[in-house]
Amino acid sequence: MGEDTDTTRTLNHSFLRDHNYVTEADIISTVEFNHTGELLATGDKGGRVVIFQREPESHEPEFDYLKSLEIEEKINKIRWLPQQNAAHFLLSTNDKTVKLWKVSERDKRPEGYNLKDEEGRMKNLSTVTSLQVPVLKPMDLMVEVSPRRVFANAHTYHVNSISVNSDHETYMSADDLRINLWHLGITNRSFNIVDIKPVNMEDLTEVITAAEFHPHHCNLLVYSSSKGTLRLCDMREAALCDKHSKLFEEPEDPSNRSFFSEIISSVSDVKFSHSGRYLLTRDYLTAKVWDLNMENKPLEIYQVHEYLRSKLCSLYENDCIFDKFECVWNGSDSVIMTGAYNNFFRMFDRNTNRDVTLEASRESSKPRAVLKPRRVCQGGKRRKDDISVDSLDFTKKILHTAWHPTENIIAIAATNNLYIFQDKLNQEMHG
How crowded is residue 116: how many other Cβ atoms within 10 Å of its Cβ? Predict the structure, then answer.
């Protein structure tokens, strides 16, 4: 991403299937680093979670396939739990059911049981005449993934978000109209903390699009809506958070009003900054940074692909206008990243106001390759490498991205391919 960029190869998410064409099931639907950045999980529309592990002592972002597990239906979100012992735990959700998975590694096996034989069968106790001390013997590394808990039957509508609380004991799951609070140890009971369902569904005017807990304050959560609003809720104030503590909303500019205004103002993603002071949101054309202390307008607005404003009619006709792009912060909250069409993704440096458009493609995924900034033009003068708005491929879209928690390593999901890039960010943004 700039003059001094390291990139790794592309990791083809479909390597478990024997075909060269892309099916709907192979499309990656979520990507998430764990808290240390050593593990990376992806989920797809076919219901598979694939976990990659970073090579030890690797200065390059070398992630190798670790384990794959099958879940029915599209994986909407994956969230890792903070690691508390040698095992890793992650939550995954499809449209209706959240599952807790344990990922553990074994490179030793016990031998010399007193009451079992080598195959694990119970011995006849009358044949046991002496006792021995079992020993651990080295074995080939084995990664085991096991479902630990299933949190089901709590959502009538499709789950769009899960978020682990900073108390490490609870998490929430959000669908179009409700948000439920769960204890990680209790599967048969959850508490409904937000319910925006009207008595008469004909009166429905908005839906919940995303929800997240504050990174440090376990009582605070935020959820976004299809009307472009953000609501900050404080669970200390009431058990049911239907009355928000703060409403973040930007007044509409009457001069920009059009048939598409409401659709493109719908917030597709919301993320707290690592510091907990800011909120990052994404709507169809822009990314916005909000200060928790300023509700009436965003602190910063970034134009992701303003050149599409003139194309909204055709984007409505081909349903692209309903695409839900996600957004992420880098580890220091100084740069934000979000996706676009034509396999482009955008980065905005908040300190310098510099931005860059980059492309995730097989050509750019060779080791040590340099990602060249791309430019889209709307008629008029065209530079040599510029791409015309009319030649953008709207079937190639970067909806899901992830940023390593401490390093400049990013993961980009492009259809059925996962690209991992490492970047000297300062040189890319300033050089």
Answer: 13
Question: CB neighbours of 390 closer than 8 A, spacing ≥ 6?
Answer: none
Counting every residue written for the chain, the total comes to 431
* Residues 359, 387 contacting (CB under 8 angstroms): no
**Residues with Cβ within 8 Å of residue 184, at least 6 apart in sequence:** 81, 100, 149, 168, 169, 170, 171
Q: Could you tell me how far CA 193 lies from the centroid of its own chain?
A: 23
Question: Which band of pLDDT confidence, cut at 50, 70 and 90, is reported for residue 4?
Answer: very low
Distances (CA, A) of 216 to 73, 286, 402: 32, 27, 20
Radius of gyration of the chain (CA): 24
**Rounded to an integer, what distance in angstroms lies between the CA atom of residue 106 and that of residue 142?**
5
DSSP 78-129: EEEPPP-SSSEEEEEE-SS-EEEEEEEEEEEEEE--SSB-TTSPBPPGGG--
H/E element, 317: helix 312-317
Neighbours of 197 (CB within 10 A): 14
The pLDDT of residue 424 is 58
Q: Give CA–CA dist 378/37, Å, rounded.
A: 39
Secondary structure percentages of the chain, helix, strand, coil, to 5: 10, 40, 45
Nearest-CA neighbor of 298 among 309, 282, 284, 312?
A: 282
Considering only CA atoms, which of 342, 347, 364 is closest in space to residue 415? 342
Q: What's the mean pLDDT in 263-290?
A: 97
- Neighbouring-strand partners of residue 69: 49
Is-contact 45 26, C-beta < 8 A?
yes
Residue 430 — pLDDT band, cuts 50, 70, 90? Answer: very low
Q: Please give the backbone phi and psi of residue 240, each rounded to the nearest 5 degrees, phi first.
A: -100, 120
Task: Name every residue whose Cβ is closer than 8 Å to that of residue 287 and which is 6 or more positions away in sequence.
Answer: 280, 281, 301, 302, 304, 327, 336, 338, 346, 348
Of 43-52, 141-150, 265-274, 287-296, the poorest mean pLDDT is in 141-150
Maximum CA pair distance of the chain?
92
Alpha-carbon distances of 186 from 63, 148, 156, rounded to whole Å: 34, 11, 19
Residue 327 pLDDT greater than 80, yes or no = yes
pLDDT at position 243? 83
Task: Return the SS3 of 309.
Answer: helix
